[in-house]
Amino acid sequence: MNSPHAPKVAGIDPSLPSPTQTVDPVTPPLTAPNSGVQDRLASWVSDLTTLHELTERLVRTDTLDEALRELLRAGAALVGAQRGLVALEPADGLGPVTTVGLGLGHADLGQIETIPRGSASAGRLLDGLPEPDGDRRADVTHPDIAGEADLDPRHREVAARLGFSASYAVPLDPCRTGPCTAPGLTPIPATGLTAIPAPAPGADAHGAGCPAGAGDHPPPGTASSTNAPNATSGTGAGHGRVAPAAATAPGIAAAMGAGGPSGRLGGVAWLYDEPAEPAERQRHLVGLYCQYAAAHITRLIELSRARATVATVQEELLPTRLPRVPGVRLAVRHHPGPHGGGDWYDALPLPDGALGLSVGGVTGSGPSAVVAMGRLRASLRAYAVMEGEDPVAVLSDLELLMRLTEPARSATALFAYCEPGTRKVVLAGAGHCPPLLTGQRRTEFVETTLSAPLGMLSCWEAPSVEIEPSSGETLLFYSDGLLHRTGEPMDRAFNRLHTAAASAPRGVRGDPDAFADHVLRTVLPDGSAASVGRASEDDTEDLVLLVAHFD
Questions:
Q1: How far apart are CA 383 and CA 176, in angstroms?
Q2: Weakest mean pLDDT among 22-31, 179-188, 380-389, 467-476
Q3: Mind telling me which SMART domains this protein's record contains (predicted)?
Q4: What distance in Å separates the CA atoms of residue 146 and residue 124, rounded to the nearest whole number?
């Protein structure tokens, strides 16, 4: 008898053998990294994050003073100090030379400056002289000033008077690396930066390739006993120590450019209230930070030098003093913008006891606008001497000269021919702001803006205006920068100027200098600063205010 066959089912081949049951292979669990390596990596990440945050705050500073103060604050957080000072003294001798303190007043800085240069921390760095072994100074440590027998007595005396017991100083040098390489960080050649090496297999927190206590290292600047300056780390008897400088960093030197100050910029010193010194890792972090801070400060120094040069040229192109003419007294306030503008003023004695007054402005900013302003002002003076009694002719000749020699520019100008004896003033304007006549009985604008600026038309012409100021009245000439610095629309700015002149006290009206200060204090939002010659950070245009008071 034949055995029955299994029924055929669609999709199943009964001839194939049944699969054998298999067990999934067991994957061995990953070995957890050593806790010391994790702590070490976390410490590095914390350090890099801290440096990133501090450098981000630094690069947001726009002025040299802000950058130096931010440098002191950030460095104090990195090394755990309470006070500090930075002495800026570029090695090229072109300045600026200044000292800025953190937690130190002007009197305190004055006392610190009495310390002999060879003994003071910042002074030794500024000298930049080699040590007896030939190494150049990279940082100077005084962990216990009172206990250093070979320290200058004046140094100990000033330290005791100001209440600091230790100091740590580093140079501001954009072309050097940090004072030391932190354990576990490898220098990258020709960059001045550091790399994080791969941890050795099986290394623990105190094994090879990992500094002792690295796992306990908190972010720099935090309040922690581990991050506090180590008062006993290799201090011995407490003598001041000088660390050798590392090699130059060509990458950062190339990024600096060739136009900035070369060499060492100055020195930074942080002061401790108790005997202490920063730990090795803190030295490394503050060294890196100061390296990038020096690069940023170098750019700010270059910018400040350029602005000072432009301002000096601009001031030299303007009158150094105002003339004295019987019957009229003059005062002027001129505050150039940060980029250097083309606004000018002038007061020129003319024949027969007359006086020529002018204000104007050339379009654009920077050195080219300043030079163009100087040429136009000199030309206007020449035309005023020859035909000053006719202001329209003066401006017509100036416009012709400008079309021939400055075809790509335009300018506004206002010229007034004054006869103080008869108190007669003839004015002509070329697109400039109208002068303001003010006194006890009236305050009104003199309309002179019926013409276009110079260089805008093929043939310039405009009518002249004649006024007769009364005794005790004042005539104000100004640039549009005075109106723009109010931050308001032009109509409101004109009203603000009108109100300021009309509200001047009686005692101020007779003094043109006091009247000019009153107008600036009233018109400008930061008038108290502008009246004494300090421009606001947001001021981008020149400001000119020329006051003529008729006796």
A1: 58
A2: 179-188
A3: PP2C_SIG
A4: 19
Q: Quick: pLDDT tens for 293-315.
A: 999 999 999 888 887 877 777 77
Q: What is the pLDDT of residues 339-390, one digit of tens each?
A: 767 889 999 999 988 999 999 998 887 778 888 888 898 999 999 999 889 9
Whole-model pTM: value is 0.59
Rounded Cα–Cα distance for residues 378 and 358 (Å)? 12
φ/ψ (deg, to 5) at 449: -105, 30
Element (H, E) at 159: helix 153-162
**Do the Cβ atoms of 165 and 266 come closer than 8 Å?**
no
Residue (of 242, 256, 326, 332) closest to 294 by Cα position = 256
The b-or-e profile of 190-214 (16+ CB within 10 A means b, else e) is eebbbeeeebeeebbbeeeebbeeb
Local structure of 102: helix, strand or coil: strand
Helix H or strand E segment including 124: helix 121-127
Q: Quick count: other Cβ atoms within 10 Å of Cβ 358? A: 27
pLDDT in tens, 215-240: 333 333 333 333 333 433 333 333 45
Is residue 64 within 8 Å of 237, Cβ to Cβ?
no
Per the DSSP assignment, residues forming a β-bridge with 166 are: 272
Structure tokens at 27: 């994957």
- Burial class of residue 514 (count of CB atoms within 10 Å of its CB; 0-12, 13-18, 19+): middle
| Cβ-based neighbours of 246, under 8 Å, separated by 6 or more | 138, 176, 177, 178, 179, 180, 181, 187
C-alpha–C-alpha distance, residues 543 and 547, integer Å: 13
Residues with Cβ within 8 Å of residue 120, at least 6 apart in sequence: 112, 155, 269
